[in-house]
Specification:
Blueprint (H helix, E strand, L loop, with lengths): L1 E11 L2 E10 L2 E10 L32 E6 L5 H23 L6 H18 L4 E4 H7 L8 E6 L1 H10 L4 E10 L3 E11 L4 E9 L20 E6 L2 E6 L1 H10 L3 H14 L3 H9 L5 H10 L3
Parallel strand pairs: 6-9
Antiparallel strand pairs: 1-2, 2-3, 3-4, 5-6, 7-8, 8-9, 10-11
Helix pairs in contact: 3-5, 5-6
């Protein structure tokens, strides 16, 4: 195996960044590295990078040492220019994303969502590719008063690739097989739609190694599985996931304000009891908590 740094050291958002590749025969792994850059990088950083999918490697990194943050992507060597473009945009917008995550800077949800819909809706619909808005943005579109931090899109395997092509100039992670902490190994991408100073983080993926698929998965990549509603973006009707998904995730992370706000949307729409039963049955919350949550929705 050969390892090579192909960009860096570069500065951004209090971090020292490098882009490296490891070649093992026909396999190439590209890695985004980031370490606390101190005063040289206008640091210290505003917070850790796990909010954006980065992890610490199990052993010290040859480029960044024992506390180096990593994001890894398995791609052909010929994809290096696209990886470098995403790497550079990621470090250029990281200061803005950190402000949204840790300083309370509002994400540009309305303008960013409208831009995404304008770019992807017509091409996907003309090609017969299913897609929808999920997560907290779905709940917001259905009436939750809380402004989301980012945008999650649901789609099929073909849709993942097509969305990446349609949002190519905004990518902060290349379209690739990669590891996302919650769903595991996925084929996906991330983007930051907007300018370097203002925008909306967007992500989409399908699992490559599904973890015991069950009915009503929000992100399975299988058409007709997620429970959907309808909302309007810029005069266009778009499909969005039922708010029960975002409501339960807020409960699981201990977000009382978010849970309360989304619960009001669920009650107004009317509880999807079948969906609620499935979501609570696979929740990691204790049984007593699940019972009280069900009562909160009057179900």
């Amino acid at each position: 195996m050969t390892s090579e740094m192909i960009s860096g050291p570069d500065l951004g958002a209090g971090f020292l960044h490098q882009l490296s590749l490891d070649r093992d025969g026909e396999r190439t792994t590209f890695t985004f590295h980031a370490q606390d850059g101190g005063s040289d990088a206008n640091g210290p950083p505003k917070g850790p990078l796990d909010r954006f999918g980065f992890v610490h490697p199990p052993s010290p990194c040859m480029f960044g040492g024992s506390r180096c943050w990593h994001r890894r992507f398995l791609l052909p060597f010929g994809e290096a220019p696209k990886v470098r473009q995403a790497y550079n945009r990621n470090r250029f917008v990281l200061e803005t994303m950190m402000g949204q995550a840790y300083d309370g800077t509002p994400a540009a949800v309305e303008s960013g969502l409208r831009e995404v819909v304008e770019r992807i809706a017509s091409p996907l619909e003309s090609e017969g590719i299913a897609w929808y808005v999920g997560g907290s943005v779905a709940a917001w579109l259905l009436g939750s008063p809380l402004l989301p931090h980012d945008l999650d899109l649901g789609t099929t395997r073909a849709g993942v690739d097509r969305i990446a092509a349609l949002l190519a100039t905004y990518l902060i992670e290349p379209l690739a097989p990669t590891d996302w902490p919650a769903p595991g190994i996925v084929r996906g991408a991330r983007a930051f739609v907007g300018t370097f100073q203002e925008g909306l983080r967007v992500e989409w993926a399908v699992p490559l190694e599904p973890k015991s698929p069950q009915p009503y998965e929000e992100w399975s990549g299988r058409p007709g599985v997620a429970r959907l509603a309808a909302a309007t973006v810029g005069g266009r009707t778009v499909r969005v996931t039922r708010p029960e998904y975002a409501w339960l995730r807020a409960a699981e992370r201990g977000d009382r304000e978010g849970r309360s706000a989304i619960a009001g949307v669920v009650r107004r729409l009317g509880v999807d009891r079948e969906l609620l039963d499935v979501l609570l049955s696979r929740s990691s919350l204790p049984l007593t908590d699940r019972a009280s949550l069900r009562a909160e929705l009057g179900a």
